[in-house]
Design brief:
The protein has 2 helices and 4 strands. The chain has helices at residues 8-21, 54-62, and strands spanning 29-36, 40-47, 82-88, 91-93. The radius of gyration is 14 Å and the shape is elongated. The mean pLDDT is 88.
């Protein structure tokens, strides 16, 4: 299934499965979904263990981000976006 037609919940399930396949269990990395605004969703990937390879987690999570922007101004369009953020024991990770 392509990520462009997945719901935020399906994306979270896919992220969990990919993280598990990479050796990161739910005790080390958790994934949650929240709704932000009327039609946008946010997926939070939380690294709970300092020994986790955070760049590997960010690489996996980034694949599931979908944000539509205006081709002229670059502004984020409203509706249908799925934002993905990665938090670690050190704090917010850009990505």
């Amino acid at each position: 299934m392509t990520t462009s037609i997945m719901t935020a919940k399906e994306r979270a399930v896919a992220i969990r499965a990919e993280l598990k396949a990479a050796g990161f269990n739910a005790r080390r990395v958790s994934v949650s979904v929240a709704h932000c605004g009327m039609t946008d969703d946010a997926i939070t990937v939380r690294v709970r263990d300092a020994s986790v390879d955070v760049p590997a987690v960010v690489t996996i999570a980034r694949k599931y981000r979908q944000v539509d922007t205006c081709s002229i101004t670059g502004e984020i369009q409203t509706g249908g976006n799925t934002f993905v953020k990665v938090l670690s024991v050190e704090g917010f990770i850009r990505g």
